[in-house]
Amino acid sequence: MPYAVGLDTMGTENPIVIEGTPVEGEYLEISWDDYLAGINCLVSGQHVCVVNGVLILDYEPPPEVMP
Hints:
18% of the residues lie in helices and 31% in strands. A hairpin with a 2-residue loop joins strand 6 and strand 7 (54-57). It has one domain (3-59). The N and C termini lie far apart (31 Å). The chain is α+β, with helices and mostly antiparallel strands. It is built from one helix and seven strands, in the order βββββαββ.
């Protein structure tokens, strides 16, 4: 099953490892439909985020979070 964790991090492995370092945070197992919807959001420039155990599609991060 696919997983989402943190801001804009989705994958199909648990844990998600980026450049040899596991991504820390709250992992959420999601459906394939949610995974595909999340990928579509990311491709179109939107954000996805796990907030309190809920996957938020088209997440709007606070201005201080984004560079």
